[in-house]
């Protein structure tokens, strides 16, 4: 019997980035989950960022996302970096722009790897780096009449 690490399924896929996008329409969990399906993956980690009704102790009434034209290319660059660091079988990331309501999906990312630990770590790295490096800005309007811009 061959050693586990000798099986091709234990290594990163040749082209693991399956879906990258910035969209002005509702995001789909099913689309992202299906994009990272891989028979060699024993673990799939999915992160969903939703619009919450508060931030920094204040009630949020409205929220809008906007982005620089390079946002999608930056998402791909980060995805490539994550795929080079972990044995990623498949990876997907989509972010919403435009006006959103409380409860709407703002970002969905998923990573499948041979094992769950790798999938969790790669997914965490993906969402953290996307949040910190991609030029997407959030404009929040609060119930007290104030507003703020937040972003990379």
Question: Strands, helices and their partners?
Answer:
Layout (H helix, E strand, L loop, with lengths): L16 E7 L5 H7 L7 E8 L3 E2 L2 E10 L3 H15 L4 E7 L1 E3 L4 E9 L2 H18 L2 E7 L4 E5 L1
Parallel strand pairs: 1-5
Antiparallel strand pairs: 2-7, 3-4, 4-6, 4-8, 5-7, 8-9
Task: List key phrases describing it.
single chain, 152 residues, alpha+beta, five-stranded antiparallel beta sheet, four-stranded mixed beta sheet, 3 helices, 9 strands, 26% helix, elongated
Q: Name the poorly predicted regions.
A: none
* Major sheet: 5 strands, antiparallel
Q: How much β-strand is present in the residues?
A: 35-45%
Radius of gyration: 17 Å
End-to-end distance: 49 Å
**β-strand number:** 9
How helix-rich are the residues, as a percent range? 25-40%
Structural class: alpha+beta
Average pLDDT level: 94
Described by the principal axes of the CA atoms, the overall outline is elongated
The H-and-E topology, N to C, reads as EHEEEHEEEHEE
Overall description:
With 152 residues, the protein is an alpha+beta fold. The protein contains three helices and nine strands; from the N terminus they run βαβββαβββαββ. Strands 3, 4, 6, 8 and 9 form a five-stranded antiparallel beta sheet that branches. Helix 2 runs antiparallel to helix 3. The radius of gyration is 17 Å and the shape is elongated. The relative contact order is 0.25.
Sum this structure up briefly.
This protein is an alpha+beta fold and 152 residues long. Helix content is 26%, strand content 38%. The model has no long low-confidence stretch (mean pLDDT 94).
